[in-house]
């Protein structure tokens, strides 16, 4: 056996090892292998160990775990013409590896771009107040629309989360003024309600004092309250002698108690 024969056997062994290593494929539990034979889709393999035909077969690994990506900050003009910057995150997973490879060129990029467009479209149809107070509802709506579009791609959008809404300084000052005006409005309404109730009570009291006897009794009660101060002189009408006597008795009685 010559040196050339040995070299020939050596190259044959290397080729056989390369063919065997190319034919053996392993994918993890959370992955699947989409197999193409001479350019035609022939099936999905995995998880675990499987074989392909070298040179004739090619395969693409697809991750089945939930994937997440940040939607780049989007400038959105709301329904009431307010410009805001919105940050969001999208969580999705591939449920059909074959569709994810066959139906769209790059499912990750396609989902990302579609998420940006859908986020701007949905948030552009609501006012700023709804965007700030109904963030969870809007996130759910964006997720449902995205899932409708990505379902033919074999992709399930699980969650869309609006993380942050940024407003410029001028708009923040305007919102603060609006909130202050709302609080002042509520305060004025409360004061007006109090005045209205007080007016009703005074009107009812005036009806009670419409008789001379009731009015006189109220006058005497007022004089009694005034007489509690020791340094005050009470002056009554000239014809009210009996009333003055009653008042004097009341004042004397108050002094004796003290």
Number of strands: 8
What does the overall shape look like?
Answer: rod-shaped
For the largest sheet, list the strands in their spatial order.
Answer: 3-2-5
Category by helix and strand content = alpha+beta
CATH topology call of the largest domain: Tetrahydropterin Synthase, Chain A
Radius of gyration: 44 Å
What order do the helices and strands follow?
A: HEEEEEEEHHHHEHHH
Q: What's the CATH architecture of the largest domain? A: 2-Layer Sandwich
Q: For the record, what CATH class of the largest domain applies?
A: Alpha Beta
Low-confidence stretches: none
Instruction: Compute the number of helices.
Output: 8
Calculate the mean pLDDT score and round it: 81
| CATH homologous superfamily annotation of the largest domain | Band 7 domain
In whole angstroms, the N-to-C terminal distance is 140 Å
Number of domains: 4
Largest sheet: 3 strands, antiparallel
Helical proportion? 40-55%
Query: In what range is the share of β-strand residues?
Result: 15-25%
């Amino acid at each position: 056996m010559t040196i050339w024969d040995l070299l020939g056997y050596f190259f044959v062994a290397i080729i056989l090892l390369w063919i065997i290593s190319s034919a053996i494929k392993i994918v993890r539990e959370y992955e699947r292998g989409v197999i193409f034979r001479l350019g035609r889709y022939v099936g999905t393999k995995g998880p675990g160990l499987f074989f392909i035909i070298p040179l004739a077969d090619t395969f693409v690994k697809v991750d089945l775990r939930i994937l997440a990506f940040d939607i780049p900050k989007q400038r959105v003009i709301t329904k009431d013409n307010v410009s805001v910057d919105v940050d969001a995150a999208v969580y999705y997973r591939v449920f059909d590896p074959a569709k994810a490879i066959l139906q769209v060129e790059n499912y990750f990029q396609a989902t990302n771009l579609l998420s940006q467009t859908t986020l701007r479209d949905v948030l552009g149809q609501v006012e700023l107040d709804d965007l700030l107070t109904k963030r969870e509802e809007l996130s759910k709506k964006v997720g449902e629309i995205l899932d409708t579009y990505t379902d033919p791609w074999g992709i399930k959008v699980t969650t869309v989360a609006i993380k942050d809404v940024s407003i410029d300084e001028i708009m923040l000052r305007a919102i603060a003024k609006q909130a202050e005006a709302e609080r002042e409005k509520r305060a004025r309404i409360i004061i007006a309600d109090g005045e209205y109730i007080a007016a009703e009570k005074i009107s009812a009291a005036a009806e009670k004092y419409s008789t001379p006897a009731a009015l006189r009794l109220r006058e005497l009660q007022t004089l009694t309250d005034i007489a509690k101060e020791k340094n005050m002189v009470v002056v009554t009408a000239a014809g009210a002698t009996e009333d003055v006597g009653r008042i004097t008795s009341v004042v004397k009685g108050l002094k004796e108690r003290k």
